[in-house]
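Researcher: Last one for today. Full complex below.
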Amino acid sequence: MFLWKFPRGYAKIVFTAKRPEAFANELLKNGVSLHNVHRISCGEVEALIRFDRLGVLLEIASDLGVESRIIKTGGVTLPVRLLLARCALFIGLALSAALIALLSRRILFISVDGASAELNSAVRSLIEDELAILYKPASSIQRELIRTEILELAPCLEFVRIEVDGVVLRIELFENLDSEKERQLDPSSIYSNCDCVIVKLCAFEGKALVRSGEAVKKDQLLVSGNLTAEGGEYVCVHSDAEIIGEVARVFEIRVDPTASVPIAGGNFESVAAVELFGLGLLSQSRFEDRVISLERRTALDAAFLPVFVSGGKANELVIGSKTLSRDEMLSEAQTRLNAVIASALPDDAMIVSKSSEFAISGGALILTAKVHTYEKIGYTRYL
Amino acid sequence: MRLSGLPESTASDFPCVSLLADKHLELENHLGILEFGERLIRIHTAIGIFRVEGDSLEIRNAERSSLLIEGKIQSISYESDK
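Model: Here's the assembly. Have a good evening.
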């Protein structure tokens, strides 16, 4: 009911007069409301008034010769309260605005494109590491210096465009491809880069010397750039062809019967585990690597949650020698074989057949795989 | 007032007293506080002096024309005619 005093502010006053009632009536006539009026003694009365009425009270008290004193003030006026409540918000907004203003004038991101990924990366590292442009003010960017440094780094570039877009420094690279194009027009022939069987040969320029289904050797001439024109004169052209060959590769993996594997050692310690909704917590261990075997599992009713507590032991893992079974050797060989094949084949190779067989020789397992692929073959040799 | 058909309390200076149990008393249209103490409060009204007796009496809120008195109210009365 008297919450008014908190948002508006209030003052607790004591006024002393021969007849405090007369002073109170005068206050009421002048619009000064009184609250919680107590009589302290015969001529002394204590009351609360609104803070903004304090001036009127003092004026009336002065006129009537009533002694009044303020013994306490409290609460805050509403606007001040609102400001205080939102103080953190205002400070945050001001700081954010200052931060945005500050950062928006600096280079925060660098975008490099237009050339190969390697060259883009090299230019980016040049700008970030050597020129240290990141986080510098945009106004301090020396474009000519950057352009010169980039062109020195990569002479194959013809032109470098540098733009500052807000907080992003955009660098567009333009490669000089004319020399490469001219080179590509020089007379040339196409040779096989491996032993294979030609599956498809489509010569756009030059003379095809082999046919589909024909087996060719490595470095064998496939498409010739020397042509015999009418009249017996030789004409040299730049050979261009699409050649697909079937390439057979043999991979061999040897796995010894003994292997170094981590095994459970003799050192062990007791462990405990707590499991809740499939998430487990395990006690800490002094072993870096260990193998855990839990034996006891107890369900606890913890506030209707399904909690399981397990106990067991953890053995330290040590590197030991183990004799592999045939299946283990085969599994190991298959894993290594797949890795070798994946790394050996070109990206555009398509596996058309794959066969493998293993043999045991002297206890070791030897896995042999024959892989046939279709892939682009041929390399250009200039005349 | 009777001719207008309105209740007398709505348009006159007559005091209007609202008493809630023996704890709260609200008096409207008062003309000033004559005496104020813990056991007795006397208030000037248009029809006389309004007298409130009790224990631990306190003026909780005093406005220009209304008073709210709280405490253990034992009796209310008018002392005399105007």
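Chain B has a mean pLDDT of 85. Chain B touches chain A at residues 32-38, 58-64 (CB under 8 Å).
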